[in-house]
Write a structure and sequence with these properties.
It is a single chain. This protein has 144 residues and is α/β, with parallel strands linked by helices. The protein has a single domain, classed as 3-Layer(aba) Sandwich (Rossmann fold), CATH 3.40.50. It is 35% helix and 18% strand. The protein is built from six helices and five strands; from the N terminus they run E-H-H-E-H-E-H-H-E-E-H. The longest helix has 13 residues. Bound molecules: 1,3,4-trihydroxy-5-OXO-cyclohexanecarboxylic acid. 1,3,4-trihydroxy-5-OXO-cyclohexanecarboxylic acid binds next to loops.
Length: 144
């Protein structure tokens, strides 16, 4: 069965309890369930991975070449996660970068993502809805 890679970086495992005024109250489990529901019509399963360390995320990308596409929230690795950036450069399927918060409405250091130029698209500021929108986009972008 085809699998969609759902990759979340540092500090995203505590969603729901992490600065809810910025990131909302949905937990990562809620998000994983919502993404799974979006892609179930295509019989895709979700391979959900969250790590706080960059090396573990890179391992997950390398182990995920057999997936059909990916949704990636790199968290703060957007700023200087060059290793993860290089891992995504070799990921052989379309992928979407998601940020729950509108990073451009926040501190200057969040205004650039080293990964974003490689993504098929970027969704920011839509909260947990952003992951579902990314899943819908991948349903369009990934050939049947
Ligand atoms: C984030 C935005 C990043 O700047 C931050 O470091 C995060 C979460 C978001 O989803 O809004 O960890 O990626």
């Amino acid at each position: 069965m085809s699998q969609l890679l759902l990759l979340n970086g540092p500090n995203l495992g505590i969603l729901g309890r992490r600065e809810p005024s910025v990131y909302g109250t949905d937990t990562l489990a809620d998000i994983e369930k919502a993404v799974a529901a979006e892609v179930s019509g295509r019989s895709w399963r979700v391979r959900a991975v969250q790590h706080n360390s960059e090396g573990d995320l890179i391992d997950a990308v390398e182990a995920g070449y057999d997936t059909v596409g990916a949704i990636v929230n790199p968290g703060a690795l957007m700023i200087a996660g060059w290793g993860l950036r290089d891992a995504m450069a070799n990921y052989p399927h379309p992928w979407i970068e998601v940020h729950l918060s509108n990073v451009w409405a926040r501190e200057q250091f969040r205004h650039d993502s080293v990964l974003a130029p490689l993504a098929a698209g970027i969704i920011v500021g839509m909260g947990s809805l952003g992951y579902r929108l990314a899943a819908r986009a991948l349903l369009e972008l990934v050939a049947a």
